[in-house]
Amino acid sequence: MTEARPIILTCGEPAGVGPELAPKALALGLPFVFLGDPRHLPAGTAWAEVAAPGDPVAPGVLAVLRHDFPAPAVPGRPDPANAPAVVEVIARAVDLALTGAAGGICTLPISKEALKRGAGFAFPGHTEYLAHLAGDVPVAMMLASTNVEPPCRVVPVTIHIPLAEVAAALTPALLEQAIRITDAAMRRDFGIARPRLAIAGLNPHAGENGVMGEEEARWMAPLIERLRGEGFELRGPLPADTMFHPAARARYDAALCAYHDQALIPIKTLDFAGGVNVTLGLPFVRTSPDHGTAFDIAGQGIADAQSVIAALRMAHEMAARR
């Protein structure tokens, strides 16, 4: 068995909790390297600069690929001067992953507002920027639990758009793309030979035969039936309100949901601390903790590292299957 290649842990927004989570993640016991400015790490952090992701460091010491930022980090107060460097770190991590120098990347949280103000960042978030760096490949966002059984894995087919726009944005082509990406990723990255996918309806009670909406009967059911004919194992469209109790989750490996909150409310209720954000469809492994910058507690040393540790572990597991 080959030795695990390290995962790149990008620094994210340095004024958030990311830098203080990096040394806590050493508890994982698997190789990773922090990509960012070591001056942003908590005082007293034992770290050593490395030239490449695989360079050895002493046990208990954080390996750091240095990327200097123009300004210090003040907890809870993002500095626009640092925004371009945050973007550069992400691009550098992708380059390392694409060349095979690292097993994948795990991204600490960014502030979309800070990046837009300080760097003119034109992407809704990490996921869209990573897809762009990979050659504008089609991707899907998955949130995966690590602490509940049966697992809760959800894919929002539409993501960061107003609820009023969901019905128009949720097209047959978009749902089919999400199904194909999810099925392929479950096989390649999660080791499931025949993925079982559950498709949530858009409307309450999955439309209830047209009484509460017609999208399910008009195009969702025919699409699902056609893809079943190609060999996909699909259930739905299903009422979303009965999809996430344990007995229901045991009947599928991942659920595709119509919109952001339909997907994220269940997993954040079931496994808030252990949820992992995974980008499906990329030519490299990418995970992220399922939380934000937490400016309100940044610098206090109280941020919970459970989600970033889960994200790094999942990145290693996915990388081992590629």
Automatic annotation (TrEMBL):
Reactions the enzyme catalyzes: 4-(phosphooxy)-L-threonine + NAD(+) = 3-amino-2-oxopropyl phosphate + CO2 + NADH
Localization (cell): Cytoplasm
Binding residues for a divalent metal cation: 160, 205, 260
Pathway: Cofactor biosynthesis; pyridoxine 5'-phosphate biosynthesis; pyridoxine 5'-phosphate from D-erythrose 4-phosphate: step 4/5
GO biological process: pyridoxal phosphate biosynthetic process; pyridoxine biosynthetic process
Source taxon at top rank: Bacteria
Annotated EC: 1.1.1.262
Family annotation (InterPro entries): PdxA (IPR037510), PdxA_fam (IPR005255)
GO cellular component: cytoplasm
Keywords (A to Z) from UniProt: Cobalt, Cytoplasm, Magnesium, Metal-binding, NAD, NADP, Oxidoreductase, Pyridoxine biosynthesis, Zinc
Entry GO MF terms: 4-hydroxythreonine-4-phosphate dehydrogenase activity; cobalt ion binding; magnesium ion binding; NAD binding; zinc ion binding
Entry note: cofactor: Binds 1 divalent metal cation per subunit. Can use ions such as Zn(2+), Mg(2+) or Co(2+).
Subunit structure: Homodimer.
Similarity section: Belongs to the PdxA family.
Additional record remark: The active site is located at the dimer interface.
Name recorded for this polypeptide: 4-hydroxythreonine-4-phosphate dehydrogenase
Gene: pdxA
